[in-house]
Design a protein that fits this description.
It is a single chain. This protein has 8 helices and no strands. The protein has 188 residues and is mostly helical. The chain has one domain (2-186). It is globular and about 55 Å long. The N and C termini lie far apart (58 Å).
């Protein structure tokens, strides 16, 4: 059974519509879909290494486009439901997001925190859209580039490494990046 699934995934990953399928999954995952695009990106690169860079860029761009739509959904959602909630209690949330939104967006684009939540929340909090897009490009791009490169460079071993070391890739690396930036900017 697993062998037939493997063959099916290999065939679809090298098929004519594989990039379109990756684009679709990356886009809808950033709005509502529960499965991350990594599930498509990894086999696509594994079975078709010559499309490594194209796949990473494709996945990044469509993830950000979906995130932008999620942002605007959150922005317009706020206006339609703000009367339901006690806005005085949301001031704390807005203040928090104003202060730590940069970190939240970067971590949300990189870590297992669903990016769709960050996108919608950023719109809801009326976070600066340009900063949201730039941070999304940085975090989503780095995430997909790291994953793609590991698979591209190390093949089966890379796929196993990603499966076994998700916490290193998705938690420790972005936290280290934030810490390094903080130390560099804090001492500048």
């Amino acid at each position: 059974m697993w062998n037939s699934i493997y063959i099916y995934i290999e065939k679809k990953s090298t098929g004519r519509y594989s990039q379109f399928f990756l684009s679709l999954i990356a886009f809808i995952e950033s709005i509502f879909f529960p499965i991350p695009p990594d599930v498509i990106l990894i086999p696509l690169i594994h079975f078709n290494k010559n499309k490594f860079f194209k796949s990473v860029i494709n996945c990044t761009l469509f993830s950000i486009l979906g995130g932008a739509l999620g942002y605007f959904l959150g922005l317009f959602l706020f206006d339609s439901i703000k009367e339901i909630f006690d806005l005085s209690k949301q001031v704390l949330f807005f203040n928090f997001y104003d202060q730590y939104g940069l970190i939240a967006i970067f971590l949300g684009g990189f870590t297992p925190i669903p990016y769709k939540i960050i996108a919608i929340t950023s719109g809801y909090a009326k976070f600066n859209f340009i900063y949201f897009i730039l941070l999304s490009f940085l975090s989503r791009g780095l995430r997909f580039l790291i994953i793609g490169y590991i698979v591209y460079k190390f093949g089966d071993y890379g796929v196993e490494f990603i499966k076994k070391n998700k916490s290193i890739i998705f938690l420790i690396i972005p936290v280290l990046i934030i810490l390094i930036i903080y130390l560099l900017l804090g001492h500048a």
